[in-house]
Amino acid sequence: MKTDPQKETTASQLVESEDPITSPAVPLKKPVSAWSALRNRDYALLFWGQLISATGTQMQIVAVAWQVYLLTHSAIALGIMGLLQAIPRLLFSLIGGVLADRFDRRRLLLLIEAVMASSSVVLAVCTHFQVINIVIIYIVVLISASVSAFEFPTRQAIIPTLVPRSQLTSAVSLSSVMMQLTFVIGAAFGGFVIAWVGVANTYWLDVFSYLVVIGSILLMIVPRIPAEKRAQAGFGALLDGIHFLRSHPIILAVFSLDFFAMFFGSPRSLLPVYASDIMHVGPQGLGILTAATSIGAVAVAPFTGLIGRITRQGIGVVLSIIVWGLCIIAFGLSPTPLWLGVLFLAGAGAADMVSMVLRGLIIQLTTPDEFRGRINSVNAMFVIGGPMLGQFESGVVAGLTTPQFSVISGGVACIIATLIIVACIPGLLRTQIK
């Protein structure tokens, strides 16, 4: 069923107007506290289950990166892994969004988590029996990425249905904080777990974390989309989503800002090179470096309530991405000693947290429920595809030049891309949701 997006929200229209962009039809109420969304049973189940599961996933990511580098000692091999993760997400995310808007989101999420757990079982078994090689890792990464392309839009579409609109700011902020906490705990702890119990047991811990989130989803009650508002089957649903996005250029601009920030400015794929060959800090140091941006993000967590009250969200997103780029440049110029590199990466993470909260509010508060799966699937293409394509880009640039040049040039390109987007869509700086 088609819905006229012009009647649903006005927060991102009239980009050429000189007046601030507002959304009087969807007033934003201030939550009682930054933690108010956790008072809702079903949201709390999703939050804590995802916290544990995503922590295990981050441990697995560190283990896979370390294992690939031990097998190949190649920055390009690390970059190829990012490309394999990005391609299926770019190809299948839109399909995942359509499914999330048409079928039972709870059952769909259960199926996705079960398949993801199976991929970690394969890595654990192959590593335990010492038959693991780069081909097996690449195949598992490709399959896992294909399935996870359906996970992000489904989970993001569920969140607004679990809390009252007055607590949506809290839910969006907590979800962003939760993901950053998993980066800190999973990435930092993952490096030490690899050193203590080995790569195979790290994969088994990830399998256990998936069992936890599957249990939490089984206990949840997720409201279904009314039959008359469900996405139509086939290509028509995609066209409806594209029509909605075209009529809201501010949302597309917000997606693009995050994509280019992560595509050019994320040094994640090169951290194993930094830990091994530049900083000489081993897997423990790799875990700390991988967690550093999230440490900065979590440090901002107590202030998410204040971030949610920023009235000009567009300016906030732009400035925070520019700060991200500057911190990445600083890391590229002065990565040592370890504490200094961690400080620069943490600064980048703090800026990214501000951007995530503001982007989340713009997207969730200007998208009707029947479109959330499809719009969040586009968001997934940009938010997840950007960093993973960026891993390939930074790996190739590092292989052709040096890791330091790849990081520094990426930070500069991030800032330039941000300024170009602002110049193309000047209404972005006037965006505000009341």
- Alpha-carbon Rg, integer: 21 Å
Question: Overall pLDDT, averaged?
Answer: 76
Cα end-to-end separation = 29 Å
What ranges have pLDDT less than 50 throughout 5 or more consecutive residues? 1-32, 227-231
| Number of extended strands | 0
Topology:
Blueprint: H1 5-8, H2 41-72, H3 75-102, H4 105-128, H5 134-158, H6 168-197, H7 199-219, H8 235-246, H9 249-265, H10 271-278, H11 282-300, H12 304-308, H13 313-333, H14 338-365, H15 372-383, H16 385-400, H17 403-424
Helix pairs in contact: 2-3, 2-6, 2-7, 3-5, 3-15, 3-16, 4-5, 4-7, 5-15, 6-7, 6-11, 6-14, 9-13, 9-14, 9-15, 9-16, 9-17, 10-11, 11-14, 13-14, 13-17, 16-17
In short:
This protein has 434 residues and is mainly α.
Characterization of this structure:
The longest helix is centred in the first third of the chain and has 32 residues, at 41-72. The chain contains 17 helices and no strands. With 434 residues, the chain is mainly alpha-helical. Mean pLDDT is 76; it is low at 1-32 and 227-231. α16 packs across α17 (403-424).
